[in-house]
Amino acid sequence: MTQAAMAERVGISLSYLNQLERNHRPLPNHLLQNLCERFTLTPAWFSDTREAHIIQALRETMADPIFKTASLPFSKMTEAANHSPELCQAFLTLYRAYTFNQEQYFETALSPSPSLEPYDVVGNWVQEHRNYFHELDRAAEEFYKNFTLKDDQLSSSLAKHLYDRHGLHITQSTDMESTGLVWRIDQHKRQIYLPHNQPHESTLFFLAQIIGQLEQSRLITDILRREGPKDYNAQELARVYLSNYFAGALILPYARFLEQAEIMRYDIDELRRHFSVSFEQVCHRLSTLQRTGAEGIPFYFLKLDIAGNILKSFSANRFSQARFGGPCPLWNVFRAFATPGQIQVQLSQTTDDAIYLNVARTVGHEGSSYADRPRQIAMVLGCSITDAAKTVYAAGLNLEDHSMVVPIGPGCRACGRDQCSHRSLPVSGRILDTGSHARGVVPYRALPEE
C-alpha cells in the first residue's frame, strides 16, 4: 500500500505514519490495536524483539578494542538494526568468526579457517524462530490427542506404545551411568535400555525423545532441509534439538499446558506437580509458548553452571545474555547457588532500560556417593515487567516502585555503568580516566561516548 492509502486506512496523518515507519515516534497501544484489527495481525507481529537482540549484540561487539577508532553511537546501532538487520547479522557472523579464529590461533599457534561453532549456529537459528516450531508442536499435540493413556500414567502409556508399534521392550540397566548414556536402543534384542535409578520425569522425557526420533524423523528432516543450518555438524545438532523439542511438546501439549499455566498464574512448582515433570521441563516449555493467536507470556530462559557457562539460552522477548565474557554477577541466577532448591525472585533493569521479573532456582540431583561429583546447575526464567502481574511471582511486589530494581548488564566488557562496584574490568572501546583528581568505586572510569 502507498503511505497515503495506509494513513487513510488507519485514520492518521501521512506525516505521522512517516514518523512511525522511520521509528521517530513510538507506536501507541490504541493504534497498535487498530492495526491488528484492520489487518488481522497479533501484537507479536510488531514486536521489536529481533531488533533488540541485534542491538545488544552490536553493543557488545563494538566494545571490542579493535573498533576503538570506529566509535558508533547507540542511536546509529539502533538505526542499523531497524533498517538493515540482514547486514547487521552478516557483520555479527563475521565478528564471531574472527573471535573464533583468534582463540584458535592463540591456543594452537595455527590459524584455521574462521567459522562459527555448530552450537552457536544452532543457537542463532533457534533464536530466529523464537524457540517455537509450529509443525513439530502441532504434530506432538495431535499425537497426544489421539493417544490413549494407560492408568492415567503417561510414561507407562509411552512404553506400551513403543512396544505395540515398534516391538521395543523397556529394560532398566545398572551400568548406563558408566557408559555416559541416558538411553540406548538395541535393535537386535528389541530393547530400550534406561538407567535404573533415574527420576520419573527423566524417564518420561527420554521415552518421548525416542518416539520423536522414531516417528518424526521425516518431519524433522523436512524442516532442516527447508530452513535449517547448512553445515553438517550444525544440522545434526539441530536435529537433536528438534527431537528434544518434540519430546517437550509431547509431554506438555501446547493448548492444555497454556490453559493450566494461565489458571495457575505460571506457578512453576504447581505446573510441574500437575504434569508430573521437572522444574526445568516446565521452564523450557514456558519459553516456547509463541503460537500465533494463542501466545503465552514471552519468557527468556537460561540454564548455566556455577562457573557462569551458559548451557541453554532461549528468548521470546527483548532480553539478550552476554555473548562474550561472563554474565553480570548481580543477576539472581547466581544467588540461587547459595540457596539450593529455593526460588529467587528479582526485578532487574538492563542497559536498554527494560525491566524484567526474573525467577531463578538450582536444579539437579544429589550425589549418589562420596566419590560422585553432581553438576551444579541453575536456571532463570524472565519476563517483561509489563507481563509480571500475570504471574504468581509478582505477589507482594510493587511493580510501580522501581527504587529496588537491580541494574544488571551484558557483562562488564560491554556495560557502561561506571558507578557499579561489581565491575571486574573496564568497559572496552572507550578512553579510560584513572582519576588523577578523584577516585571512583573502581580505580578507572570510562569517559562518556561523544
From TrEMBL:
Question: Which residues does the UniProt record annotate as the domain HTH cro/C1-type?
Answer: 1-46
What Pfam families would the database entry show? HTH_3, Peptidase_M78, ScfRs
Entry-linked InterPro entries? Cro/C1-type_HTH, HTH_RamB, IrrE_HExxH, Lambda_DNA-bd_dom_sf, ScfR_C
As for family, the record states:
Belongs to the short-chain fatty acyl-CoA assimilation regulator (ScfR) family.
**Protein name (database record):** XRE family transcriptional regulator
Q: Give the organism's phylogenetic lineage.
A: Bacteria, Pseudomonadati, Pseudomonadota, Alphaproteobacteria, Acetobacterales
